Amino acid sequence: MTNSRLHRSVVACCLLLPGILGAAGLQLFEAVEPHMGTLVRIQLYAADADRANQAFRAAFDRIAQLDAALSDYRKDSELNRLCRSAAGEPVKVSADLLGVLASAQQVAEATDGAFDVTLGPVTLLWRQARLQHRLPAPDALREALQRSGYRKLHLDAAARTVTLDQEGMRVDLGGIAKGYAADEALAALAGLGIHRALVAASGDLAIGDPPPGRRGWSVGIDSPDPRAAAFSRVLDLCGAAVSTSGDSSQNLEVGGARYSHIVDPSTGIGLTRPIAVTVVARHGIDADSWSTALSVLGVERGIALIEKYPGLAARFTVGHDAAFRIVESKGWSGQTCHIAPIQ
Predict the structure, then answer these.
(1) How far apart are CA 37 and CA 172, in angstroms?
(2) Domain extent at residue 275
């Protein structure tokens, strides 16, 4: 996610390392493929190109498998088949879909609904609004909100089923699926013995063991000041994940107001305050969902909540262009360049 204005600000990205042989005789390889509506970049250390290519294929194939299950854009996805099921009827689902929904519901409960994957009817209206360059109709928003609500989604882990309370519900996993996919791609690499790796699905990064001779992978956070040439912060990370949420690439400007693609579930309205949130967690599925939830909660409520979770660290950037402020949670404070791993 990049933009010439503030809203591109705290976008985490990997800093490319030179492709030289490491102390263990490992070489850096890199591959990029389009998946899940974005470009997925994988960097890894392997002994030779054959092993690297085998690992890339396994990781990208795993991401493609997850996209087929979790996408709300694909009519034939497992997620959309679930949404077309009869209200009140338990539906057997895959372990992947159940696991992602379970994690989403945990964050929804923890944030009192600030993160809500059942907001699909509302986010669909905002997608259409961005294409048409106009705000959603108030009546349509009210009706869409009535078909939303995380308490209308029920999971049975033992039976591996999901039940939707109401007809016309639509689940949108856009705020959690890429983080999970990055985790799973990293796990696919590890299954082939490739542990020194980084997977970047747009602004969602899952990071394995450090490169040879280094204490971590360098991850840069863009400066909120468009005049700045360098990153505002560089973290050296291993055994961790990073995600940034903001309105840099998806937004709607109407009547002098800028509406983010991140929607407040309590109102159905895209966020209008300029805010971007970077979260570091142990797993991408957590960093992804919590960065979205904290964007909705805002700085004061978000900081108060995130500090109850020692496995999470957050950095908020609020404001316009050069007039901005940065607020960091206690879990972030004192970390000059290294957070690895967060337990």
Answers:
(1) 14
(2) 6-69+176-339
